[in-house]
Amino acid sequence: MYDLIQFLRARFDEDEQLARRALTGPWETVAMGGIVGVYAVDAHEMVSLADSTDDLAAAPNADHIVRHAPDRVLAELAIKRQLLDTAPGVVAPLLARAYHHHPDFPAHWLPQE
Question: How many domains are there within the chain?
Answer without folding.
Answer: 2
